[in-house]
Write a structure and sequence with these properties.
Number of helices: 5
Number of strands: 0
Shape: globular
Radius of gyration: 17 Å
Distance between the termini: 25 Å
Largest sheet: none
Strand content: under 5%
């Protein structure tokens, strides 16, 4: 299920606390009126959360509730929108979190491939059902093995 602003893994306050206010305004000011456009910010936050889920959805039910999401998900959800904002202004190389974004993508890639797991049950409140894994990892050998 795609995210909405209420299910996004990151809030506007989370994002803006990590970046200079002037940069945030510039990156989100599409109508050039000197203020960040709230709709653009909301769109970026939703897109970033959906990007995280794109890595997870083959193995886990998504979206993962933010209150129980492991740090891996929350970190990626912070670094994706920062990357989007720097990309919107053609400043990808100036992204101060570029290395962290690369690391987050590498971890999520391993999760998607099944070579790394997320512990989605350790933080589940007592009154909530744990998140379920959608499949068990299969191992194929020989010439019938799938290659990606």
């Amino acid at each position: 299920m795609p995210h909405t602003i209420s299910t996004a893994y990151i809030s506007a306050a989370d994002l803006t606390s990590l970046l200079p206010a002037a940069f945030v305004t510039e990156a989100l000011d599409d109508d050039e009126d000197g203020t960040a456009d709230a709709a653009v910010l909301e769109s970026v936050l939703i897109m970033a959360s959906n990007m995280v889920d794109a890595y997870l959805e083959a193995r886990y039910y998504t979206p993962v509730p933010k209150a129980t999401a492991p740090a891996t998900i929350l970190a990626a959800a912070v670094h994706f929108p920062i990357g989007i904002l720097y990309g919107r202004r053609g400043m990808e190389e100036k992204n101060p979190y570029k290395a962290q974004l690369k690391d987050a993508i590498a971890i999520l890639t391993r999760v998607r491939a099944g070579t790394e797991d997320l512990d989605l049950t350790a933080r589940v409140p007592e009154d909530q059902e744990p998140v379920q894994v959608l499949f068990e990892q299969a191992i194929a050998v020989g010439r019938d093995r799938l290659n990606f």
